[in-house]
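User: We ran a pulldown and think these components assemble together. Before we commit to crystallization trials, I'd like a predicted model of the whole complex to look at. Sequences follow.
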Amino acid sequence: MPSYLFCPNCGQRSENGLCTQCFLEQFDLVNCPPLLVAKVCTTCGSCFRNGKWVECDLNSLTTSTVRSQLNINPAAEDVHISLVPEIFGENMRVHAHVDAMVRGRAVSEDFDVDVRIARKSCDRCRLITGGYYEAIVQLRAENRYPTSEERSRCKDITANVINQLQKSNRMTFISDIKELKEGIDIYVVPIHAGDQVSKAIAERFGGQISRAAKLAGRREGKDVYRVSFSVRLPRFMVGDILSLGDLIIDITSTGKRIVGRDLNTGARFNSDVKDMVDAELLCHRSDAKTTVLTMVQDDEIQVLDPDSYEPITLPRPAFLNAKGGDEVSVIKTHKCMFVLPD
Ligand SMILES: [Zn+2]
Ligand SMILES: [Zn+2]
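Assistant: Here's a predicted model for the assembly, 342 residues in total across the polymer chains.
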């Protein structure tokens, strides 16, 4: 037996079949189909990756699509792959560079892969389009209708809560928002989202949540429920002026506690909304009228009635800084007239 063999291709001395040079000439470092397809949701931009819809950007979708289809020769060692995506018309193109060591020699290959972007509707957007929902958050208010400010704040709160929940469960979404005279109905998925949204609204505005479940049918042998969360905003709003016992309260903040100022003394008012069942709504700050403060003397002031221009004497409020001749805002209720703080 000879201690060496010859390359069957070129006849040079070689100990393991083809010599390194002939081996490398026919060596295929990497194989990849020249055209691949990636699915992207037309509506929300979600990407279909590894068999499911996920949130990711087009660059990482295209590079991962190419990476999953790269077939690297198992004889290659110390493999480095660089994939640089670029927008190519409506689609993407990836510039690939692979280098590796083969039989102790450095080899590399450069090639482009086109990734066609197929625009589809993702699982979530299909459900939204179909009007699918699992819970309804019904925003209402006690003895009144929610204001446009409250409505828009509630929609902001809902969007924030849903965005947060979507990070751990992408099948969390707002299916529909219906504006009604008596409030708004927000349709969401899943039930947990309805729970979280109603709690966040009640946390911000105060108010009661009531929950009702209704059987909506059966799916995969299990009962499926739809849950409504009714959030009742409190009777009072910022700017409401109410009487409670001897107090006339100008409300400056609402929530679980009602904060305001007594218009007689200027004293701060702070009470649990539950302790205010006897309060009577007199009017709102926006009902105030401008008039002239004609005199300030010791504990008394005189203002002109904004309707009749009769001089009216009132006790001097503690917060009053205005002087005789200044303009002040006054509120006339069926009980009395009050000067408002600036
Ligand atoms: Zn050879
Ligand atoms: Zn989508």
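The helical segments are 20-25, 58-69, 123-129, 148-166, 191-205. That may be worth checking against your pulldown data before setting up trials.

User: Thanks, that helps.
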